[in-house]
Every structure is written in structure tokens, then in C-alpha cells.
Amino acid sequence: MAKSKTHVSHRQYDDEESGWACMNWFEYMLVVVLASLLLLGALTLTLFWALYYAGGFAWTEEPARQFNLHPVLMVAGFITFSGFSLLLYRICRCCRRIYVKLFHTIFHALAIPCIVVGFIAVLDSHNLADPPIANFYSLHSWMGLVTMGLFALQFVVGFFSFLILLCCEGATAAFRASLVPIHASFGITTFMLAVATCLTGLTEKAFFKLSSKYSEMPEEGIIMNALAMVLVALGILLSYAVRREPFRTQVKTFVTERL
Length: 259
Ligand code: HEM
What we know:
The chain has a single domain, classed as Four Helix Bundle (Hemerythrin (Met), subunit A). It is globular. The chain is mostly helical. The chain is built from nine helices and no strands. Mean pLDDT is 87; it is low at 1-15 and 251-259. The protein binds protoporphyrin IX containing FE. Residues 70-71, 74-75, 78, 122-123, 126, 135-136, 138, 140-141, 144-145, 147-148, 194, 197-198, 201-202, 204-205 line the site of protoporphyrin IX containing FE.
């Protein structure tokens, strides 16, 4: 007897799961573990650089050290929190979609205060410097503005779609379905753009701080380059993880829950 895909039972889902090839599980676990290590590693390396090489943190009383909050909070918000949010949303196989969406929203919401304070820190470090430093003169700062704009747009659209899911699930299904591919492709674009923005920021900082010593490969330069390579690895791994078809089996099963 033909069964409707939308009314498939959890039992049937379990059966489909057990059919998932051993190789798929191995690849899946490898991607999840590696991505988690890299997401936490990026934040740890940024913190280590800020504390050990750049003199730690301060607020407006010391604009030069206030700047150090900028890379740490931007990496925390745009890379670590947003990266976990993307990973969880696309490849979580253990919970109902509604909980996955809730955690996706919570992780992105956690990124917001990091991004806001990170942005205020860099603005203050320019405006309160003696003499003040010009704002928005660099490619990095322009890319940063586009990244923050896209992030804000994505959050508003995602949050709005989650709200209408909670209040009128059935009536809004078609509308939410049309939003899914747009939200998904802009999501990975925002992450890649954040990686590129961090790379330009790191290069700029390495030249400002180390100037001609950079080419002598000092320890600090190596740490900054290592952080940049972790970010590049994350760009590759996360775009692979979210596009990998077998990781999304569950999404196909619960058709109504995916929207
Ligand atoms: C996605 C993450 C990031 C975003 C959205 C971002 C955004 C911005 C913006 C908008 C400015 C301009 C502030 C102004 O003109 O007053 C700026 C400045 C700066 N950022 Fe970032 N940033 C990010 C990550 C980083 C990282 C990881 C570093 C590494 C150290 C960094 C280093 C700098 C430096 C050195 C400046 C001052 C020079 C300039 O204005 O270009 N940024 N950032």
C-alpha cells in the first residue's frame, strides 16, 4: 500500500536511518567532528592572539586595546556561532525540525551581541584615537558592512518565517517553502563573505602591526596565518557539509517539518 511521504512514521524513519551506509556515517562523523574542532579552534586562536600578542582587552579608556575586542567578537559571532548554527540546521539528524530551527535561531541570536559590540569596539578605536583614524576607507571595512547587512537581512527573514510557522503552520507552508532556497543560499554566502572579510582584516592587521618584519616570519605572523588557514578550511568544509545530499536524508522524509 502506498504511503504518503508527509505521514511517514518515526519508526519508518528509523528503518531508513539504519539503512544509511556505514561509509556515510563515517563521513558524516568526520565532517561534524572536524568542523566543530575548526570552529572552536578559530575562536581559540583569535583569543590567544589578542591576549598573548596584542596586549589583551580594554574599553574606551584605551582605544588601541579596545580594538582587540573587534577580531575576537567578529570571529565569535560570524564564524563560531553562525558556523555551528549552519551546521546544526543542515545536518542535525537526531531531533525534530522544530527544535533544530529553534537552536538555529538561538545560535544566530547569540551572534548578534558579539557583532554589535565588535563593531562598536572598532568604531571607538578609530574615533577615540589621537589623532582620530578615518572610518570606512578600506576594502575590509566595505566588505564588513556588506557582511553585516546580509546577516541582518537573513536574521529578519528567518525570524519572520519562524514566527509565521508558529502561528499559522498550514496556511503559510507554500510561502515558507519559497523562502527556504533563498534563505539557504544567502546563508552560506554570508558565511563565505564573513570568512573573506576576516581574511582581509587579518592581512591588514598583520601589515599594520608587523610591517616589514612580517616577511621575516615572526611567531605572531605565523599564528595569524594559521588562523587564516583555519578560516579557509572552514569555508571549504562548511560549504561541502551543507551541499552534501546524503546528510539531508531526514529533511526529505519530514516534508512538512522542513519548511
Ligand atoms: C566578519 C568579520 C568582520 C567584520 C564584519 C568586520 C568589519 C569591520 C568594519 C566595518 C570596519 C571599519 C570600521 C571603521 O571604519 O571605523 C573594520 C575595521 C577593521 N577591522 Fe574588521 N571586521 C571583521 C573581522 C576582522 C578580523 C578577524 C580582523 C583581524 C584582525 C579585523 C581587523 C580590522 C582592522 C585592522 C580594522 C581597521 C582598519 C580598517 O578600517 O580597515 N576585522 N572591520
